[in-house]
Structure formats: structure tokens, C-alpha cells
Amino acid sequence: MIPTDDELRRELAHGPLKRSGFDERLRRRIEERLDETPVRRPFRPSRLAGMGMGVCLVIAAVVLLIRLHPGNTGGTQQQLADSSGSDTVAGSATAVADAEETPRRSVLLLGLRQDTDGAASAYRTLLVSGGPDASDWSAADGDGIIMPYRTDFWRLDVQEIQGNNGTFRLVGAYNASRGDTGTLPPVRAGGGGIGPIEERILFAGNRYVGIARLTSGEWTYRMMDIADLSQPRNVRLIASDAERHMVPAVQTDGRLGVAETDAPERLGGIDEWTLARKAGRWIAVGREEGAGKRMESAVRRELPYAIGSVIVAHNELALYWDDIRAVQPAAVDAVTSPARNMAVILTDRKIVIYSMKNGKLDREMLDMELKPGETVIMAEWATHVDYVDEWIRRVSELFGGAPASRALP
Known about the structure:
Blueprint: H1 5-13, H2 24-35, H3 45-68, H4 76-82, H5 85-100, E1 106-114, E2 122-130, E3 138-143, E4 145-149, E5 152-163, E6 166-175, E7 187-188, E8 197-205, E9 208-215, E10 218-225, H6 226-229, E11 233-234, H7 235-239, E12 246-250, E13 256-260, E14 270-278, E15 281-288, E16 301-302, H8 321-327, E17 333-336, E18 342-346, E19 350-357, E20 360-369, E21 374-382, H9 385-398, E22 405-406
Parallel strand pairs: 6-8, 7-11
Antiparallel strand pairs: 1-2, 1-21, 2-3, 3-22, 4-5, 5-6, 8-9, 9-10, 12-13, 14-15, 15-16, 17-18, 18-19, 19-20
């Protein structure tokens, strides 16, 4: 039976042996073996070959070590002789611990939509950065939604076109990093007889955009690919609900993804869907087919699936709501960095940015005004060292060099 670690530790604590290692029985066995006639084993060439192979492997290992550490060739053998296995393991564990504790920086692109009675919705993006030093913390904002997509940043906004029978407010997108035309794609108005259409952005993340659409006095909800929103949009297709859009689909891991409208893996029974905020995370909401009326806020229901990373890369709130409300009793939403070093809390009037330490709120670093009627529609993070400064630089340029507020003293 193999002893457990605890048993081994107990045995070692009492010395190298449980009893005397040399007794009378062992002495007799040694004397009997001394009286036996030694037997010579026949010579086998295979043994010599095996020994030669072992010597070759040892030589190859030494050469490899010398090549990997050319600067230490003079003391390599002595270092290997002096080093113990326990020291090597301890050194490796220390290196891993140091890597995990290395201070990281975070950048957040927070998209907000403002709804006011009798007016078109307005949009802005907040650029928030933070890290181990006070100088790492800053915040700025710009008009429209700046959405990271692949290696570029795209601009989402709503353009207004005057039609024959009313106003069209339609969502469009373009690659702002490439210096595209700088305007949203054109809209094909089509023939007459089409009434006003209004669209609002409900969600933006990865490559998908959730849209609420008002036609003939009723709201419908669609999930669109950002690449489709960068193409000219046809009002007639929009009004007849014939425009290409994405439907929910359950992935092999059981999480919710997206699929083409006619894909076999689509989630059956769901005609309309989008993402909404609930308790600091994204949830999927939908309306079942044949419900008898359009998907109004009073009849939509939460879909019982976790959202896959293909839609939302980071959907975890690393704080308890009790802890959030303890410092901000009027909190209505919150997001935390994947690096768990930044928290952004939204109240009914302001946006408060905190540093985090050991999984808890540390100190208040910044605050900004939350305009009346503003809600979160995007929360995209960068924490890798190769992207943090790049996001800050490129998004600041798209903001037109807007001044940034700095950390509180």
C-alpha cells in the first residue's frame, strides 16, 4: 500500500528508520551469501549497447544545457551539483507566484445610451483606464459608440434620414480605425408607403449588435452582425422584417451563441431576442413565436442559458451586491475587470470608478456624471500588456484628443 503524504511526513519526523536497521536475521543472510559460489553472468553485447546509449543521452543533455545557457558555461557542472531538487521546485513555484502577482492594468470601453421622452436616443463611450499606480487612472468620453472588433475600432451610431412618410433613424457602423469615409453607410429609402422607423442600440459586444426597432407603433428586437450594419441598408427589407439577422443557438457547451436564421442549431420557439443588463451581468431575453403580440418590455422573458464568449467575452461580476451597496447604496449597475483590479459602479446620478484589491473594493479613484436616462449597452475590456496602451492611444485619437480626468488625490 502506498503511504499517504501525511504518513510519510510523520515517519520522517521520527528519524530515518522506524527500528534498528541491522538485526540478527540480516546478519545470517549476509553470512550465507558470502559462503555461496559466485556465478558469472555471460557477456551480452546488448548490455554494452544499452550502456553506450545511456552515455550518449547524458552527453547530449549536457551539450543542450550548455547551449541553452551560454553565459554560464564555466559554472554549469558545479551549479548542477550544488542544486537540489527541492530548491528547483521551490524556485519554480516562486516564479509562478510572482507572475500571478505581477501588477496589471485594465482598460474599459463603456457604452451608454441616453433615452429622453420625445427625442432620439443619444450615445457616448467612456474610456476608463487603471492600474497599480495613481498615474494609470484616467477617464474620458466621446460621442457615439466605439466598439472594438477584431484588431480595429468601429463606430456605431444612428443616422437620421427623412423619408416620404416620416423619419428613419437607423443604426449603422463603419471601421473608424481604417479612416473609412467617416460617415455611416447610405440608406436605400425604397418606394413610398413606408412609415417612420426608429432603431436603438441595446447591446454591442464582440461582433454583434442588439437592436430595438419601432415600426407601425410596435417594437421588435433583432441581433445583427456588425459587418451587415456596415453595408447599405434597405428600408423596404427592414420594414418587411426580411433583413438578415442572427438567431440564438445553443452551443455544444450548453451556452448561448448565435446562428443564421435558417441554421438547424437555432433555438426553436424564439422569434425575437436581445441582451439586457441584470445585476451587473448580461442576460438573454426573448419572445416566443406565436405569443400574440410584439416583444414589449412587459412580456419578454429571460432565456435560461448562460451567454457564450462568442457574444460576450467577459460576463462576470467579481463583487457581491451587498458589498457594492455598502459603499454606493444607490447603485443600479456595475462591471469589474477580468484582472479584478477595477470596478465601475453606476448609480442613478454618477459613475464611480474604484480600484480593487484581494477581490474587494479598495478606494475610489474617479467619478463622472451619469446623465439622466443613461444605461449600459457595452462593456469591453483590455487587460493584456500588448493592448492596454494601444487601446488608450487609438480610442483617444477617435475622441479627438478629449481631455481625460485623472485619479483623485
